[in-house]
Task: inverse folding
């Protein structure tokens, strides 16, 4: 007799590379067979029901079918589950007991990505979705001294937002980011290509190159200014990449893997050259850091430059905590922050580095940090779409309730978009402050 399958993993999950160059990756029959296999196992477990809306959608389809099993669900409805997955990876990293090395070998996010890639290969994407994921093009078009005020003003006019909802499928209830008149790359342009000597500490080299990110560059350039100020206050020289394109995360979530490869080809050589020149790499938005730390290495496991960039990439707070452990953190804080209600972003949590933001902010005297480890439901574009906004708000509501209950002096998230979405869900004039901005405030610089 064969051995019964183990109830769950007794080891940490291991990730297989994404075999997206294999022709079978886009084989429709193969994809749907794997969806049926995994959906059946998920139906028998249901441990992930409290995460995103993909799992409740799946379980409702099963429970409303004639057989009450996955075989009763029409395959045409499988994409209803896929559409609700925004690849946060939390099910894989925190919930699923059947990830490899378990024999059932479930990688739900990568299966959803495969289904998205198949759908994109077959049918392309809606015009709305193509526009929303063209972050570089939108930023270049809108982040302009003349155009940005007009776009930002239009986004605040209710009748025009309602029209946008009806004609373009962009929810009139969704928070939309403002565009800046002074992109980050312009305000930090004096930092391009500077020569500097860092003071190594542990595995850090003591000088960092900033990957600005589309959002940081075109929407909230203050993130870059605050990061540079904090790092330089800690005697860490900061430069900015000579050039950059979108990290590719929006295109990944759309299933446009060829566009991800193009972005990789644009970004990786520049970043790898910085590493060769002795720079470590940081980004102020966790999703962008995750692209270089996980997604690109899994898509291009044999590319040595991708691996080089991965090994040199850090979350900003991770970097500062590593320096702190070597006695290289400036602890001369001028201003206590009182109570902070802090939302840990999903794309930061799945980096498996621990609660570094909370750890560092807790070093500030007379400062208490309450961490909320729960998804905001935003995902960059998911919360913006008319058909998904209500789901995104529902996912955010438990986080919003925690923030309201805390009655803290400050609220913020490592993901600025998540922070704004949570604040919008709370209403009542709630504001959000990025943790790096809070740290700058504590230093009084």
Result:
């Amino acid at each position: 007799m064969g051995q019964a399958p183990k109830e769950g993993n007794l080891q940490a999950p291991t990730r297989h590379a994404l075999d997206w160059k294999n022709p079978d990756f886009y084989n429709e029959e193969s994809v749907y067979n794997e969806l049926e296999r995994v959906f059946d196992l998920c139906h028998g477990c249901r441990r992930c029901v409290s995460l995103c809306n993909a799992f409740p959608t799946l379980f409702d389809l099963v429970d409303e079918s004639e057989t009450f099993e996955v075989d009763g669900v029409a395959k045409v409805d499988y994409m209803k589950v896929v559409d609700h997955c925004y690849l946060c990876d939390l099910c894989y990293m925190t919930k699923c007991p059947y990830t490899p090395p378990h024999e059932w070998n479930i990688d739900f996010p990568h299966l959803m990505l495969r289904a998205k890639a198949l759908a994109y290969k077959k049918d392309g994407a809606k015009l709305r979705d193509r526009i929303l994921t063209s972050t570089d093009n939108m930023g270049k078009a809108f982040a302009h001294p003349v155009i940005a005020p007009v776009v930002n003003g239009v986004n605040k006019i209710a009748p025009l937002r309602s029209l946008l909802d009806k004609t373009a499928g962009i929810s009139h209830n969704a928070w939309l980011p403002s565009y800046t008149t002074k992109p980050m790359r312009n305000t930090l342009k004096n930092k391009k290509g500077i020569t500097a000597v860092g003071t190594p500490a542990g595995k850090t080299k003591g000088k960092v190159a900033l990957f600005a990110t589309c959002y940081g560059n075109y929407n909230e350039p203050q993130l870059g200014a605050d990061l540079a100020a904090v790092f330089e206050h800690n005697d860490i020289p900061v430069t900015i990449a000579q050039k950059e394109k979108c990290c590719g995360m929006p295109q990944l979530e759309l299933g446009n893997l060829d566009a991800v490869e193009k972005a990789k080809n644009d970004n990786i050589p520049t970043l790898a050259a910085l590493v060769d020149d002795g720079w470590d790499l940081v980004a102020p938005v966790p999703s962008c850091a995750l692209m270089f730390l996980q997604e690109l290495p899994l898509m291009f496991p044999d590319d040595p430059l991708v691996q080089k960039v991965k090994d040199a990439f850090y979350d900003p707070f991770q970097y500062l905590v590593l320096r702190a452990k070597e006695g290289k953190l400036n602890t001369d804080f001028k201003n206590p922050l009182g109570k902070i209600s802090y939302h840990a972003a999903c794309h930061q949590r799945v980096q498996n580095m621990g609660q570094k933001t909370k750890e560092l902010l807790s070093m500030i005297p007379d400062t208490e940090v309450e961490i909320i480890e729960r998804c905001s439901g935003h995902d960059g574009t998911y919360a913006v779409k008319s058909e998904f906004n209500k789901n995104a708000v529902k996912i955010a509501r438990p986080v919003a309730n925690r923030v309201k209950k805390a009655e803290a002096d400050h609220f913020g998230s490592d993901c600025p978009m998540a922070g704004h979405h949570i604040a919008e869900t709370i209403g009542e004039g709630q504001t959000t402050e990025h943790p790096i901005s809070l740290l700058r405030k504590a230093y009084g610089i």
Q: What stands out?
A: The first helix runs from residue 28 to 45.
